[in-house]
Design a protein that fits this description.
Structural class of chain A: mainly beta
Order of helices and strands of chain B: HEHEEHEHEHEEHEEEEHEEEEHEEEHHH
Distance between the termini of chain B: 38 Å
Strand order of the largest sheet of chain A: 3-4-5-6
Radius of gyration of chain B: 21 Å
Order of helices and strands of chain A: EEEHEEE
Structural class of chain B: alpha/beta
Strand content of chain A: 25-35%
Distance between the termini of chain A: 20 Å
Number of strands of chain B: 18
Number of strands of chain A: 6
Largest interface: A-B, 29 and 24 residues
Largest sheet of chain A: 4 strands, antiparallel
Number of domains of chain A: 1
Oligomer: heterodimer
CATH superfamily of chain A: Folate-binding superfamily
CATH topology of chain A: Folate-binding fold
Number of helices of chain B: 11
Shape of chain A: globular
Chain lengths: 99, 416
C-alpha cells in the first residue's frame, strides 16, 4: 500500500484515504472551439503513461479533500515528492530519479 | 509434428514416453521476416497462428522478452464469456467464444475449455434493470443468456448467500451457460506449438529496444540479440504498449494499471460455475485443480511493477466472503498482479497506425483472456491485408478523435 504525503494536511497517510486523479499538469485548452477533433481527442483521452517517473494527481478524499500532485516511480512505486497544485515538480525525468 | 492422439500416446508408452518431440523449436533468428510480432503472450501467439493458418504468411517471428505466456496470459482469472452490451463488442467477443469452442481440436492441444456457465449477480433494482437490458441485447445479437431469479441462482450455486438478510442481497443474475473457463497456460502453449509447426519462429529472451524506420516505413526491430528485419511489425504488448508506441513517437489513449488476483489452497469441488458481481466487486471460480481463483478490479494508480496494493486484495476478499460466507475460512495460497492496458472506453484498439507497416493490438484491459482467439484472428487479418478486419474496424484508434467510442465500461454492468 502506498504511503502518501498530503502537502496541505502535512501528514503522511495510507493510500486508502486518497483517490487517484490521473496525470498531472494537463492544461485545459483556452479556446476549445478552435481545436481540431484530433487535438481535442488528444486532450481528453491520450496520456503519457510513462514507465518510470510519473507526475500525477491525488485527492485527499478522507482528509482535506483537496487535490495535490505527486511524483512517483511507476516501476518501483516509490513516491519521490508531493507538491501543491500550481507548483512545479522538483524531480523530473530530466533531472533524474536518484535511484 | 507429433500429433497428440490416443494412438501416439500408446505408441510412446512403449518407449516410456522418452521420445516425444519438443513442443516447439528454439530457432536462431532469420535476417528478415515478413511480420515480426512483438509480445509472446497468448494474443501474440494467436496472431502468429492465424497469420500462418488463414493467410498463409509463415515467415513470421514472435519476439518475447521473457518466456512465452509469462505475462498477463499467466496472470488472469481465465474467465470466458461474451455477454457484452454493445453490438461491436458483442460481435467480437462472441466470435472469440465460438473459436474457443473448437480450439482444442483446432490446435491439437487440450486447452481444458470448460463451459461451466457465468453468472453476473445483481444486488439492486438498477443492477437488475441493467441485467435485463444486457441480456435482451445479447439475445438480439444471437448470444445465449437468461435472467435468473434468486431461487434459480440458489439451485445453481448452493454455497452462495442468497438470503434476503444479506448486506447486499442477491436479487437476480444474468446467466450465460456457454461461458466458462480455460487453462490459461495451455492456450499459450497450444498456439505456440501449432504456430511453430507451420514455420513461425518463436524467439524468447529477446527484448525489443527500438523500432527502426526508413522513410517513415518500418524496416525492423532492434533487440538485445541484434537487429531483426521486418516488413511489418505488430505490437501485442498489453501493459507495455505505451512504451512500444513511444519508441516511434506515437501516443496511445492507454493507462497501464496493476490488476491483482489470488488463488486459495486446493479444495474439494464446491463451485462448478463462475460467479461475478459488479456491485460488491469480485469474481470467483474453482479451477480443475481445486483452488478458488479470485479477482476484482484494477488498482487505482498507473504502474508497471506487476504488483498492487494490499487494500485492493482486502476489498476483493471481503466481497467474496460476503457472497460465500463458507469461504471465510479458506486460506489463500498465492497472489499476483499483472499490468493491464486500460482504455477510456474499456474496449481494445486493433488498428493500423500512422507509421506504415506498424500495427497495434492493445487496450484489452481487464478482459483480454476471453478474447484471445478473436483478437488474434482479427489482428492477423488486419496485419496481413493492411486493412482492418470488418469486426476490428470499430476498434480503430481513430475513434478517440471521431468520438465513436464503444462505451462498455459504464453500460455493460459487468465486472471488468
Amino acid at each position: 500500500m502506498l504511503q502518501i504525503h498530503c502537502p496541505y494536511c502535512n501528514e503522511t497517510r495510507e493510500e486508502e484515504e486518497f483517490t487517484y486523479g490521473g496525470e498531472a499538469h494537463i492544461t485545459r485548452p483556452l479556446d476549445p472551439e478552435s481545436l481540431s477533433d484530433a487535438e481535442w481527442g488528444d486532450y481528453l483521452f491520450f496520456r503519457k503513461n510513462p514507465r518510470g517517473l510519473h507526475h500525477e494527481m491525488w485527492n485527499h478524499a478522507a482528509g482535506c479533500r483537496k487535490y495535490f500532485n505527486v511524483t512517483r516511480n511507476t516501476v518501483s512505486y516509490e513516491i519521490l515528492e508531493s507538491y501543491p497544485m500550481g507548483a512545479k515538480p522538483s524531480v523530473t525525468a530530466e533531472t533524474g530519479d536518484k535511484n | 509434428m507429433d500429433k497428440y492422439s490416443l494412438f501416439n500416446l500408446f505408441n510412446h508408452a512403449r518407449n516410456y514416453h522418452e521420445n516425444w518431440q519438443r513442443a516447439w523449436r528454439n530457432p536462431t533468428p532469420k535476417k528478415v521476416y515478413d511480420v515480426v510480432i512483438v509480445g509472446g503472450g497468448a494474443h501474440g501467439l494467436a496472431t502468429a497462428y492465424y497469420l500462418a493458418k488463414v493467410h498463409g504468411i509463415t515467415n513470421v517471428a514472435v519476439v518475447e522478452k521473457g518466456y512465452l505466456g509469462g505475462g498477463n496470459t499467466a496472470r488472469n482469472t481465465t474467465i470466458i464469456r461474451s455477454n457484452y452490451l454493445w453490438d461491436e463488442a458483442a460481435q467480437l467477443y462472441e466470435f472469440a467464444l465460438k473459436l474457443w469452442e473448437d480450439m482444442s481440436q483446432d490446435l491439437n492441444f487440450n486447452v481444458m475449455f470448460s463451459q461451466r456457465g457465468v453468472l453476473n449477480l445483481g444486488h439492486s433494482l438498477q443492477d437488475m434493470r441493467d441485467i435485463e437490458r444486457r441480456v435482451n441485447a445479447n439475445r438480439l445479437n444471437g448470444i445465449d443468456g437468461e435472467v435468473l431469479q434468486t431461487n434459480e441462482i440458489q439451485d445453481l450455486v448452493p454455497l452462495l448467500n442468497c438470503s434476503p438478510d444479506a448486506r447486499y442481497p442477491v436479487l437476480g443474475a444474468s446467466w450465460q451457460p456457454r461461458g466458462g473457463t480455460a487453462r490459461h497456460d495451455a492456450v499459450a502453449w497450444g498456439y505456440a506449438r501449432a504456430a511453430d509447426a507451420m514455420g513461425v519462429d518463436l524467439l524468447q529472451q529477446t527484448e525489443v529496444t527500438g523500432i527502426r524506420r526508413s522513410n517513415g516505413e518500418v524496416v525492423g526491430v532492434e533487440t538485445n540479440n541484434g537487429f531483426i528485419g521486418a516488413r511489418k511489425v505488430a505490437c501485442v504488448t498489453a501493459g507495455n504498449s505505451g512504451v512500444m508506441a513511444a519508441m516511434v513517437g506515437l501516443r496511445l489513449p492507454i493507462e497501464s494499471r496493476p490488476l491483482q488476483a489470488l488463488v486459495s489452497e486446493p479444495l474439494k469441488p464446491c463451485l462448478d460455475t463462475v460467479v461475478m458481481s459488479n456491485a460488491v466487486h469480485g469474481y470467483i471460480s474453482q479451477s480443475d485443480k481445486g483452488d478458488l481463483v479470485v479477482g476484482a478490479g484494477v488498482d487505482a494508480y498507473n504502474g508497471y511493477g506487476q504488483r498492487g496494493s494490499f487494500n485492493v486484495i482486502e476489498h476483493t476478499v471481503q466481497a467474496i466472503c460476503e457472497l460465500f460466507p463458507a469461504f471465510s475460512r479458506v486460506r489463500m495460497n498465492r497472489q499476483w498482479g499483472g499490468i493491464v492496458d486500460t482504455c477510456p472506453d474499456a474496449c481494445p484498439i486493433v488498428s493500423k497506425t500512422s507509421v506504415k507497416g506498424l500495427y497495434f493490438n492493445c487496450g484489452w484491459g481487464t478482459g483480454g483472456f476471453k478474447s484471445t482467439p478473436g483478437s488474434g484472428y482479427v489482428f492477423a487479418h488486419t496485419v496481413a491485408n493492411d486493412n482492418p478486419h470488418p469486426m476490428a474496424a470499430p476498434f480503430n484508434i481513430d475513434r478517440f478523435s471521431s468520438g465513436a467510442l464503444i462505451d462498455e465500461h459504464g453500460a455493460a454492468g459487468v465486472a471488468h
